[in-house]
Amino acid sequence: MADKPKLAMYWAASCGGCEIAVVNLHEKILDLDAAFDFFFCPCLLDTKISTIEALPDQEIAVTFFNGAIRTAENEEMARLLRRKSRLLIAFGTCATEGSIPGLANLSTREELLRTVYLDNPTIDNPEGILPLPSSEVAGGTLQLPVFYDRVLPLKQVVTVDYFIPGCPPEAHQIWNVVAAVAAGQPLPPPGSTLGAGQLSVCHECSRRKGEKKIARFYRTSEITPEPDICLLEQGLLCMGIATRDGCGAPCPQANMPCSGCYGPPAGVADQGAAMIAALGSILDPGDCRGKSEAEIAGQLAALLDTIPDYAGTFYKYSLAGSILGGRVKS
Q1: 246-259 pLDDT, tens per residue?
Q2: C or N terminus of the chain, fewer CB within 10 Å?
Q3: Beta bridge partners of residue 143, listed in sequence order
């Protein structure tokens, strides 16, 4: 294996789905093994961090870094792998935009710890003990990584060469990137998004699209949508109009609205803002003739009240990396 380029994969604040996505390469994972020395992957291999530290700088050809930066350990590993890797790729939406862990930015660190360790009905913690970075016990000192105040996407901590979006990335897109790197094909300029398109999910979606006038929104449990009509036109809040293509639109094909996991399309700085702007032109508050501004505002508010969770809908995957960043008001 000494003559094969080294490939690493690391998880930070993530669920493990990105590793499963790599396994979903199926038989092509044998081709990956033939092209690379799969050197480091904590959930699959027992390579020690000390082994990574002992490598010459840039010894690892490619590192797929999945997960957001939530703790001091996440940041330490991001900086180590940046130094040891020729290409550092933010792999999956947790690394590229912060994803679902980034929604925690709407709460303070203290609120999060209280919810998990004190106010949780499944926790028996009568002494109100909270985890600390350092604790003295009979056998010595126990240490935990510092839990940061905010979740950060990888690009806010180290320089990232490329981005592969998705929660998780689709297997065929992973393979397209792996095959290009293995073959030494020219890659786009650093900072580019790989394994995805330049347009929106609507471009890939085969559903029939017509005039959009939405009088109310529905949760997916409230209606059975028509199988061939745009889900947004049926009142299901589909994020496809503000989400980068490349996934193949599997969710709309399965009668489920796109939730936005591929992040904003090319050229869009803020996915949530783009979606809100799009909705602004298609909401239908009803007949407003002869009504006062207050009455019209009331009709519009009633329509908006059918959206159960603004942040969790418009910024489900992109809050930490957005213009807003999910900062908590002091």
Answers
A1: 999 999 999 999 99
A2: C
A3: 134
What does the pLDDT look like over 214-233, one tens digit per residue? 999 999 999 999 999 999 99
Residue 262 sits at the vertex; the CA angle it makes with 260 and 264, to the nearest 5 degrees, is 75
As its CATH architecture, domain 6-101+150-182 has 3-Layer(aba) Sandwich (3.40)
Q: Domains of the chain: which residue ranges?
A: 6-101+150-182, 111-148, 201-314
Q: For position 286, what pLDDT does the model report?
A: 83
Give the ranges where the chain is alpha helix by DSSP (H).
17-23, 28-35, 49-54, 72-84, 93-97, 109-117, 171-182, 201-204, 250-253, 271-280, 293-304, 310-314
Neighbours of 249 (CB within 10 A): 21
- Residue 76 pLDDT exceeds 60: yes
DSSP string, 294-321: HHHHHHHHHHHTT-S-HHHHHTTTTTTT
